[in-house]
């Protein structure tokens, strides 16, 4: 491995690609050499603007070659980069801009709200190009990237990842790919990208695609399955709600997806029955990924792994009981994870850092168990609980049980205040295609298997679950809907 800092390995991939197209946007193709040239020019522009080691830069970018090059250029000059996802609320934008941001780099036509200073990609490209080899200024222990969590369980937190950690990650190093990634990578020949390259997942699978000899293909309108066929995509990232819609569409009005090789399910757990159905309908293309902003990728199930599992973790993962001791296989425990590329903590939040980053491990707050073969299964989150009559009940088992009913495509459970029991279980269910859930039978199912305390006091049938900007189901919006009396 080279001793130069991140993003040297990514730049080497672009140089090796040469004249091969690595980024395709409509009729425009950009080669590895072309992208490398953009990085050089943008890095010169950033340095001319006074951006360097220790500078905080917010990246407000879409999906195009310049956006990809701009993020790499920020790392070339050694800046601390925070990606700004589309769809953030005004409060969340203020929070991001408060992360010691010195400037915003954007390819947008309008200035982002609350920006202390705006540097447009077009302006940066007008700076004189520096002579000689591209100089990398990142220092190993400096923070290279702040990755904002989804905020699905509260306000987003900024995970601080150093240049050393970014360089240690396996994405741009084929010799370090774990088995599941070696299975996935060749399938990323035409990797569909959309939304924003500020997304950690979208960007890193893009780098993986280039490392595997593939091309990042832009979808301006990412409606599935049309975007997959229109762009002849071989692979893409997909959330659980989108996967469910794609499977339903293929059942009712199938299109030719014979060129599809991989859908990487990301953002939330995929229940076993939905996993099996997706494999049955779409074929052996479903990869079920598990990771966190704090750790990066933790594990991934290939199409050949047990449905409902996230495969065999290639990193250190321990399931621990309430006493902090490891639990045996088959027993649920809180997952503690250790990876080479993990964050060092939360930016400017020592209290939360101390709670989550413990003795070199990251406390995921996720519940999981290992089966007898060593595959990891996710079963819920430690904070997704309902306290009924002073007794704590996890929502994950209730959701999974409801989702086994043939009338239910997906289920989401929340706890809401109750005058008699302190809190009560409330469930929101999305019906299976052509089915009408029978509330009484759903309540009976829960009571029979989990006991009366877990029986939902109310079950609301909804067309679809509201999503956070990250694409994850947003339970806070469900609670708000309940409070407002909406179905």
Overview of this protein structure:
The chain has 487 residues and is an alpha/beta fold. The protein folds into three domains: 8-168, 3-Layer(aba) Sandwich (Rossmann fold), CATH 3.40.50.12780; 174-381, ANL, N-terminal domain (Rossmann fold), CATH 3.40.50; 385-484, ANL, C-terminal domain (GMP Synthetase, Chain A, domain 3). Helix content is 29%, strand content 26%. It is globular and about 75 Å long. 47% of the residues are buried. The model has no long low-confidence stretch (mean pLDDT 91).
Short summary of the structure?
GO terms for molecular function: acid-thiol ligase activity. With 487 residues, the chain is an alpha/beta fold. It contains 15 helices and 25 strands.
What is the CATH architecture assignment of the largest domain?
3-Layer(aba) Sandwich
Q: Would you state the CATH class of the largest domain?
A: Alpha Beta
* Share of residues in strands: 25-35%
Radius of gyration, Cα only, in angstroms? 23 Å
The number of domains: 3
Strand order of the largest sheet: 2-1-10-9-11-12-13-14
**Shape by Cα distribution:** globular
Quote the average pLDDT: 91
The beta-strand count equals: 25
Distance between the termini: 56 Å
CATH superfamily of the largest domain: ANL, N-terminal domain
Question: Could you name the key traits of this structure?
Answer:
alpha/beta; Rossmann fold; GMP Synthetase, Chain A, domain 3; seven-stranded mixed β-sheet; 15 helices; globular; AMP-dep_synth/lig_dom; ATP-dep_AMP-bd_enzyme; acid-thiol ligase activity; AMP-bd_C
């Amino acid at each position: 491995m080279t001793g130069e800092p991140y993003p040297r390995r990514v730049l080497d991939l672009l140089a090796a690609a040469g004249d091969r197209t690595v980024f395709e946007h409509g009729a425009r193709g950009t080669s590895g050499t072309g992208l490398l040239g953009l990085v050089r020019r943008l890095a010169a522009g950033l340095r001319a603007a006074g951006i360097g080691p220790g500078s905080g830069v917010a990246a407000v970018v879409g999906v195009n070659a310049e956006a990809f090059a701009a993020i790499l250029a920020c790392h070339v000059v050694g800046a601390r980069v925070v990606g700004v996802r589309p769809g953030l609320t005004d409060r969340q934008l203020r929070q991001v801009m408060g992360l010691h941001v010195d400037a915003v780099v954007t390819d947008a036509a309008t200035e982002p709200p609350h920006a202390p200073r705006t540097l447009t990609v077009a302006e940066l490209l007008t700076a004189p190009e520096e002579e000689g080899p591209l100089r990398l200024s990142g220092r190993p222990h400096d923070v290279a990237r702040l990755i904002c969590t989804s905020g699905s369980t509260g306000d987003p937190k900024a995970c601080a990842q150093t240049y050393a950690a970014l360089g240690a990650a396996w994405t741009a190093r084929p010799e370090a790919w774990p088995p599941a990634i070696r299975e996935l990578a060749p399938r990323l020949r035409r990797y569909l990208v959309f939304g924003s390259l500020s997304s950690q997942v979208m960007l890193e699978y893009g780098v993986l695609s280039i490392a595997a000899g593939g091309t990042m293909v832009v979808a301006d309108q990412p409606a599935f399955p049309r975007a997959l066929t229109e762009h002849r995509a071989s692979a893409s990232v997909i959330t659980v709600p989108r996967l469910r819609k794609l499977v339903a569409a293929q059942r009712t009005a199938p299109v030719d997806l014979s060129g599809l090789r991989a859908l990487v399910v990301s953002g939330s757990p995929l229940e076993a029955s939905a996993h099996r159905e997706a494999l049955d309908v779409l074929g052996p293309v479903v990869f079920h990924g598990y990771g966190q902003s704090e750790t990066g990728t933790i594990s991934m199930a290939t199409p050949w792994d047990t449905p409902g599992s996230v495969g065999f973790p290639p990193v250190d993962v321990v399931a621990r009981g309430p006493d902090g001791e490891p639990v045996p296989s088959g027993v649920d425990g809180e997952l503690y994870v250790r990876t080479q590329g993990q964050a060092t903590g939360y930016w400017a939040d020592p209290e939360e850092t101390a709670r989550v980053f413990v003795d070199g491990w990251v406390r995921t707050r996720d519940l999981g168990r290992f089966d007898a073969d060593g595959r990891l299964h996710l079963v819920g989150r430690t904070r997704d609980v309902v306290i009924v009559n002073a007794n704590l009940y996890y929502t994950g088992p209730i959701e999974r049980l409801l989702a086994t009913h043939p009338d239910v495509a997906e289920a989401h459970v929340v706890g809401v205040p109750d005058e008699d029991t302190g809190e009560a279980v409330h469930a929101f269910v999305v019906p299976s295609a052509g089915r009408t859930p029978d509330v009484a039978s759903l309540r009976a199912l829960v009571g029979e298997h989990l006991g009366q305390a877990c029986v939902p006091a109310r079950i609301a049938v909804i067309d679809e679950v509201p999503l956070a900007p990250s694409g994850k189901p947003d339970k806070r919006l469900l609670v708000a809907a309940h409070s407002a009396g909406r179905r």
